[in-house]
Amino acid sequence: MGKDLAVENLQVIFKGYTDGSPVETDMELKHGNLIKLEAPQGSNAVLVKNLYLSCDTYMRGRMRDRHDSFIPPFVPGSAIEGYGVAKVVDSDCPDVKSGDIVSGITNWEEYSLIQNTGQLKKIQHVDGIPLSYHLGVLGMPGFTAYAGFYEACAPKKGDYVYVSAATSAVGQLVGQLAKIHGCYVVGSTGTSQKVELLKNKLGFDEALNYKEELDLEAALARYFPQGIDVYFDNVGGVMLDATIANMRNHGRIALCGILSQNNRNDPQSFRNMFSVISKRITMKGFLQSDFLHLYPRFLEDVTHYYKQGKIVYLEDMSDGLESAPAAFVGLFSGKNVGKQVIRVASE
């Protein structure tokens, strides 16, 4: 196929801003769009064939018309943007060659012209590690877990660690890193199936189904009678409030996400904030981009742990770009088991 030939490029388009819970009709499949398989001369851009696309909860915030976040909102009428793994079809960038496999921000479509090539990372194919893992355990969620646990949580061996949304792309790795570090780890999740996965596959010491608990404070006191040293918070809201009540003196809380608040317009208030003072608790919000200097060490450490069998990873793969809207919406009802990925094309 000559690269000057235009081919049809199926896309997932963002239709318009929404404050409610995401639904599939917030997005639409667009057929008939043509794209030339070339990077224009002098553009320093690359033309890629997307192989895998990542569904991430932070993308929910980009569906609101808000400009006060760390990342701008989506553009209505344009393809949705997110992390992906792609094969370079044509390159006008001296650092990237045709045939390279790269990860970084791309569009939800079959082919993408990427102008900001500085954000792309070249992927070295390692035997036994699927390329899609560069969107999960070896990608942004994995690095979020690594940086958040080691930097924001300041863990010590023997710490009592609690992880919410523990089967999520981030949570599952936090728990396993904590076990490797010599901590006692409990995770929460939303189904009995996921509770079993946490205990039997991911190696957590204990796990609870928060949907079965009428009193979260009492439930956490049951699992942590001695209190919690480290809380890795992925959900915020009443779970964070209940955890604060169960923290030990000088406990540390890493604020990573607020899943429980994604579709709320009324901020939730807290009853237990005085404990932050009386127990001298440290609460630290962070973004993985604050710690990019640690990325090479993260890649080396986690690859090593995975190859040694010290880390396992749960991935939920959906096939075809047309499956992307349903897969994304499913994140917010806990439909996925592990990291949600869309397979756009075979490697």
TrEMBL record:
Alphabetical UniProt keywords: Oxidoreductase
Pfam family, one: ADH_zinc_N
Domain of life: Eukaryota
UniProt KW Oxidoreductase keyword: yes
InterPro entries: ADH-like_C, ADH_N_2, ER, GroES-like_sf, MDR_fam, NAD(P)-bd_dom_sf
SUPFAM superfamilies according to UniProt: GroES-like (SSF50129), NAD(P)-binding Rossmann-fold domains (SSF51735)
Enoyl reductase (ER) domain: residues covered: 32-342
An example molecular function term from Gene Ontology annotations: oxidoreductase activity, acting on the CH-CH group of donors, NAD or NADP as acceptor
Protein name according to UniProt: Alcohol dehydrogenase, C-terminal
UniProt lineage: Eukaryota, Viridiplantae, Streptophyta, Embryophyta, Tracheophyta
